[in-house]
Structure of ATP synthase complex subunit 8:
Amino acid sequence: MPQMSPLMWFSLFIMFSIIFLMFNQLNFFSFKPKIMNNSEKIKSKNINWKW
């Protein structure tokens, strides 16, 4: 069974690292957050503190 040279392991590591980073960037930039309106913020439950 042939063994891989250290440079080949390093190039494989670089390739998978680049694929991993590209996959993360695509997921990050494809996500579009939902924008809340001011009226939705006002509708949130008010807490009355009784000191």
Residues 6-30 form the longest helix (25 residues). The radius of gyration is 25 Å. The chain is about 60% helix and 0% strand.
